[in-house]
Amino acid sequence: MSNVVFSAKTRTDFGSAKSVRLRKQGRVPGIIYGKSAAVAIDLDGRDLSAHLRTISESTIVKIDVDGKTHDAFVKATQRNIQDGSILHVDFYEIEMGKLLRARVSVHINGNPIGVREGGILETPLHDIEVECFPKDLPERVNVDISNLGVNQSIHVRDLALGDGVKLISAEDQVVALVKFAKSEAASTGEAEEAAAEGVPAGKDAKSGEKS
Q1: Which of 48, 66, 121, 209 is the one with CA 20 to 30 A from 193?
Q2: What is the CA radius of gyration of the chain?
Q3: In the chain, how long is the greatest CA-to-CA distance?
């Protein structure tokens, strides 16, 4: 659980002109939905931007709206394509005592042994789906790949999720793997084929001369 708290006000004026006026005042319009009736709000733009740089999609934040607290995820943000400023934010409210399903980001850490030996690192999976109570939801899953050698991989089933967290994503999905570069893999294959025929690597199998 994070300690991020947003202070917001109930928004009663709607329309594009009202939203533009809010942004000029340094406020960002938003909405809270999911648990009950949607609540239109506006928040301090600087405070929102600062916190969004430190949280993930699975971070549960608190929103204080005129003295009433809502527990929620930051579900989506709309940004200005020119300067990146936040135009609108959507929050999804949750109930702390009920099971939820959420996607948790996977963070890769470390420099694999296999890469230092000439292999190539691939990280095809960036998040996983889990089910748990909100109090048990991890903000992210950290994966140390320092000991990963060439032709070795880490799968979803190998991740440490913590007590109370049930995995929903397929266990056989690859999180990270190290493999040889194509040229090196081809050379290795040629050497193995030559060895099987009793010919030294780098020589023609029929003539014995270098190819």
Answers
A1: 121
A2: 26
A3: 88
Stated pTM of the model: 0.71
H or E element in which residue 10 lies: strand 5-10
**Could you report the per-residue pLDDT of 19-69, keeping only the tens digit for each?**
888 888 999 999 999 877 899 999 999 999 999 988 888 899 999 998 899
DSSP annotation of 210? B
Is the Cβ–Cβ distance between 89 and 30 less than 8 Å?
yes
- Whole-number Å distance between alpha carbons of 185 and 21: 61
Tell the residue number behind the tokens 């050698």, with chain if given: 149
Question: What DSSP line would sit under 112-145, residue for residue?
Answer: -HHHHTTEEEE----EEEEEE-GGG--SEEEEE-
Minimal CA–CA distance to 62: which of 14, 8, 116?
8
Residue pair 32/65 in contact (Cβ under 8 Å)? The answer is yes
